[in-house]
């Protein structure tokens, strides 16, 4: 049977496809740009018929229709691998929850721990002449989802960029149960956030000083990594490489300015490797059918062994706050959930093991709460309920606008002194008093 015949036999409407979903089922929406649109709307339309449908996804770029139904929690529970602002609001509304993970392990979670899923449904590119639907910029863990799903439904979107890889970046028509042709909405975009501030630029300059020609980059999302990316794009650095979890606009800008060649990479030479991408249309256009870019499963991109095998690996990520022991929280403000662990720890550990590699955790020295109070991001201890994303043993470089410190090899009193030294001056005396109470301040320490 030819592939087009199989396609035609499996082609149904979204309303018909979601009839396979029953009360109590587990349904997977994949995530980011792969989140279904037509299928989501069709499932929301069935809300009154369904109870306790549990849905997995993450990094939502738009609000799903299932979030909008009356008494959402009675019908749907959202389980997120990584939070966007949309999902944070859903937590407050009582029908969304975070699923803790180490990102590199996610495919294994599906194959060995979750092991069973009722329905997987997500957006893909149109089928190619060999019968494959490309996952778009979402290789990440999608094949693992499909491996354990009873039913796989693909929603075709002609606007989905075709992202080349090498393995587990596509699904064949023979592995698909239903095909739905959606309305081809624009691919969801994720902006870079507010423009870089003076603080962001100060931090970026200190990090760029540490990047040699031929380095391989990983950057997270946020104003500071984007500020670093913008400066790299305008720098005279050359022969840079990319091996990252998330591909962001900054990488496309750096590449289009001629700074990325991948010639010095000791793994996947010449390829920009990533697990998923979320950004602007400009970036999606750059990734589309680009043989220089390689979309790969997350257990490959975030493998500590793979990261460590790449010389001069530079990892740049954000934090919510850091305590005087060097514990890094990138996920919550106390018990209020903000983001997720993602692959930060994978890259913190892998970059340190790389020959010449460095991991940078960056943050502003302060933040201002809604009531106008200014708080230090360098804290005596993490707030009760805050999450330790990176343990004190794993922390490498911490950077604020007041400086950068390498914590490796430091005892507790050295760490306290170093971190207080990059805290905002207005908070240093209080931090010293707290360090004294915690028995991590020596009398010989500077004051």
Could you say how many structural domains there are in total?
2
Could you please say which CATH topology of the largest domain applies here? Glutaconate Coenzyme A-transferase
* Level-2 CATH architecture of the largest domain: 3-Layer(aba) Sandwich
In the CATH hierarchy, what is the class of the largest domain?
A: Alpha Beta
- Please tell me the overall pLDDT: 95
CATH superfamily of the largest domain: Acetyl-CoA hydrolase/transferase C-terminal domain
Radius of gyration: 23 Å
How far apart are the termini? Answer: 79 Å
Percent range for β-strand residues: 15-25%
As residue ranges, the low-confidence spans are: none
Structural class by secondary-structure content: alpha/beta
Overall strand count: 26
Shape: globular
Query: What order do the strands of the largest sheet run in, or round the barrel if closed?
Result: 4-3-2-1-5-7-9
Helix content: 25-40%
Helix segment tally: 16
| Biggest β-sheet description | 7 strands, parallel
Structure characterization notes:
It is an enzyme of class 2 (transferase). Strands 4-3-2-1-5-7-9 form a 7-stranded parallel β-sheet. The longest helix has 13 residues, at 425-437. A hairpin with a 2-residue loop joins strand 19 (332-333) and strand 20 (336-337). The protein contains 16 helices and 26 strands. It starts with a helix and ends in a 10-residue tail after the last helix. 29% of the residues lie in helices and 21% in strands. Helix 8 packs across helix 9 and helix 9 runs parallel beside helix 10 (249-256). The protein folds into 2 domains: 3-181, Glutaconate Coenzyme A-transferase (3-Layer(aba) Sandwich), CATH 3.40.1080.10; 198-437, Acetyl-CoA hydrolase/transferase C-terminal domain (Glutaconate Coenzyme A-transferase, 3-Layer(aba) Sandwich). The chain is α/β, with parallel strands linked by helices and 447 residues long. The model has no long low-confidence stretch (mean pLDDT 95).
């Amino acid at each position: 049977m030819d592939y087009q015949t199989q396609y035609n036999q499996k082609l149904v409407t979204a309303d018909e496809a979601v009839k396979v979903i029953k009360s109590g089922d587990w349904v997977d929406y994949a995530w980011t740009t792969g989140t279904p649109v037509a299928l989501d709307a069709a499932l929301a339309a069935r809300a009154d018929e369904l109870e306790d449908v549990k849905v997995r996804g993450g990094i939502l770029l738009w609000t799903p229709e299932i979030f909008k139904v009356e008494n959402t929690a009675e019908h749907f529970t959202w389980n997120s691998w990584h939070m966007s602002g949309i999902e944070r609001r859903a937590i407050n509304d009582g029908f969304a929850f975070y699923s803790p993970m180490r990102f590199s392990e996610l495919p294994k979670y599906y194959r060995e721990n979750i092991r069973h899923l009722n329905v997987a449904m997500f957006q893909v590119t149109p089928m190619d002449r060999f019968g494959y639907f490309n996952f778009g910029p979402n290789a990440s863990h999608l094949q693992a989802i499909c491996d354990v799903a009873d039913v796989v439904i693909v929603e075709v979107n002609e606007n989905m960029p075709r992202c080349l890889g090498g393995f587990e970046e596509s699904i064949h028509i023979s592995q698909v149960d239903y095909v739905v042709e959606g309305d081809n909405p624009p691919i969801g975009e994720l902006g870079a956030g507010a423009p870089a501030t003076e603080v962001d630029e100060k931090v970026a300059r200190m990090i760029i000083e540490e990047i040699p020609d031929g380095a391989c980059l990983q950057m997270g999302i946020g104003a500071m990594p984007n500020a670093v990316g913008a400066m790299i794009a305008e720098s005279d650095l050359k022969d840079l490489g990319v091996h990252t979890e998330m591909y962001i606009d900054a990488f496309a800008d750096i590449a289009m300015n001629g700074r990325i060649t991948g010639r010095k990479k000791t793994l996947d030479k010449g390829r920009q490797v990533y697990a998923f991408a979320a950004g602007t249309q400009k970036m999606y256009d750059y990734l589309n059918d680009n043989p220089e870019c390689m979309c790969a499963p997350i257990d490959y991109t975030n493998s500590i062994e793979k990261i460590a095998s790449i010389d001069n690996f530079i990892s740049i990520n954000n934090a919510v706050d850091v305590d005087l022991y060097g514990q890094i929280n990138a996920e919550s403000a106390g018990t209020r959930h903000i983001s997720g662990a993602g692959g930060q720890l994978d890259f913190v550990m892998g970059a340190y093991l790389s020959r010449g590699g460095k991991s940078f955790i960056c943050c502003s020295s302060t933040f201002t709460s809604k009531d106008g109070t200014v708080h230090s991001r360098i804290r005596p201890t993490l707030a009760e309920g805050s999450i330790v994303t990176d343990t004190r043993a794993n922390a490498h470089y911490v950077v604020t606008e007041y400086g950068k410190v390498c914590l490796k090899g430091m005892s507790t009193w050295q760490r306290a002194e170093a971190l207080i030294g990059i805290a905002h001056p207005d908070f240093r005396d209080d931090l010293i008093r707290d360090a004294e109470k915690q028995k991590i301040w020596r009398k010989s320490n500077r004051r």
